[in-house]
Amino acid sequence: MIARAVIAAVIFVISVITYPGALLVSLATRITPPPTNIRGPAGALPWLHVVHPTGALPYIADEQGRMVIIHAATPASLLEFGGSPTNSIQPSDYADGRCPAQLPHSTYPPLCETDLDAMATLGFNAVRLPLSWSLLEPERGQFNATYVDRIAQIVDWARARQMYVIVDMHQNAYSHFVGTGPHVDLGSDSGAPQWATLTDGFPSQVYSNQRELNPAVLEATTSFWYDRNGIQDEYISAVARLAMRFRDDPAVAGFGVYNEPLLGWNLPPGFEDLLLFPFYRRVIDAITGAHDGLPCWSGFFMPAPCGYRDLGVDDTRHLFFLDTGLLREVTDFPTHLGLPLSSYPNVMLALHAYTHIYTVDSIVLRQKVKDATYPWGGYDQSYVTAVREARAMAAGLLVTEFSNNPADDDLILTSQLQEQEKYRLGYAFWPWKETGAGGWGAFNRDGCLLLSRDRLLARVYPRATADPGLTFHYDASSGAFTLSAGGRHGDAPTVVYVPAEVTGDVAGSGAVSLQTVASPDGSRLVTASPTGGPFTIAVAPATLDLRGCA
Amino acid sequence: MRDRAATRALVLGLLALPFGVFAPFAIWSGARSLRRIRASHGEVRGATAAAGGLIAGAISLVTVVAGAAYWFLAS
User: Fold this and answer.
1) Cβ contacts of residue A306 below 8 Å, gap of 6+?
2) DSSP letter at A443?
3) Is A166 helix (H, G, I), strand (E, B) or coil?
4) Concatenated DSSP letters for A447-468?
5) What is the chain B residue with the closest CA to A17?
6) Tens-place pLDDT, residues A88-119
7) CA distance A30 to A394
8) ipTM
9) Which residue, among B55, B70, B72, B73, would best test binding to A if mutated, counting the most A CBs under 10 Å from its CB?
10) CA neighbor of A271 nearest in space, from A340, A332, A207, A334
């Protein structure tokens, strides 16, 4: 009898803290009313939120309900890497148009106000701003107010240019405090502060030339997922601090909760379903007060069904951008069940699209791009599966990273941009500037915009539309653009951005009234007001006025 | 005498809860063990462990099927 009771109890407890419990809590979020959405104070930019249409992919929308397509640039200038100098975080060094010189041996130049101008001129309407936890909370419980002020300074610059900011808690290979060792380049590692890097004496040694394949990195990452020494609680508290600072600012679109989550010693799909996405739910619970998970302890390992206490931020307006597990970048298809995670509606699945760069054909089979035998579904494989994954999770989808060696732009960058158009997805291009060897930035080492990046990134696209089913295509070789949409009389207008590089005439046909306004930087903004019925907007092919360097 | 497959079924069943791939093996092992124990008319023990493994495996299988079904329906 006692044996039966013990076995039943063990089965019950393990069921609750693993998949059965995780599934029930996840499905419960679908029937839980969302936290009350308190309308935010009016700002320079419309508040964004996520619309959940029946039977279709959720999308970002503005206050008029129009689908908003984000094109973001990603400056890595606020990150702290090991073994290389960190750019000044003193806002006064950047005030009044000042711009510090790039430090010797640094990979990413300082981000200055002129960079925001250059981003806007290229047509970016957002900035994805990666941060380092090590700079935000260098000592446990002590937040660096100067660093937060520096972030706020960049938000101010963006707001002045009508650009949104995605505040991104970034990391690469967990931390640069994992220790030195064979083949370890701490200059490519960033993230957790030293006090939150628990390697337990595992050696720091990189295998297969992949910075993440390092026992010390895997152990430190695992320590985070299991909340050893309460470090996950500290992280949640750090994100909450940021949320509190920007709670009433619509120029901050939302928060990237954790960049490229590494499995540690865990295996998929349990890593994502039982550790990663429940962690995301806890962050959302803490900041929005959603109360989706079960009430649990904190300070040490919190099983999948555990929610998190309301930290009193009461932010029910910002978006949360939730990265897929890092392994998905290798497979280009989902590595977990993809369960709904929160009743909070403003959730975006954040996809990193690195087909032929980090997929198995490249890092395992060592194949060249043009000879690649994987992914079997081509570039589309990652996107078509990500759309399904996001829908299952009741989340929108944003490509928060993609890039490549500029030499492969005609193959990779062109294909990625085509996929994003096909699925009407916004994106964040990585990185804005990178001066190290083999840099992927939009500029060369001398600070000149690369010709191929000018041609491909300065593109015509709809920034907002009342028709979420619209289709559009920009041909970067000819400058031609076509958009097909529909609308009722009185619908909010569709807004199309035409960069200065594109010189062709704009024309509309069908049930639409067009108004084109030119900006001082040479770009044009086309406002298309539907008059009831289908319509098209076209930009005629014409010679591109490219300003970049070869 | 204790049926070794009963213990195996229980271990597989408990493993199946976080790792659903073990669920069919737990069910198969538990069911076979239970059949042997019943046929032995009391000579072979371990029915509790075998049933536990069978139940845990079944819970896991139902969870995986329900999760996958949700994914296909909702995605």
Assistant:
1) A278, A282, A293, A294, A296, A297
2) B
3) strand
4) SPBBHHHHHHHS--EEEEES-T
5) B18
6) 999 999 999 999 999 988 899 999 999 999 99
7) 9
8) 0.96
9) B70
10) A334
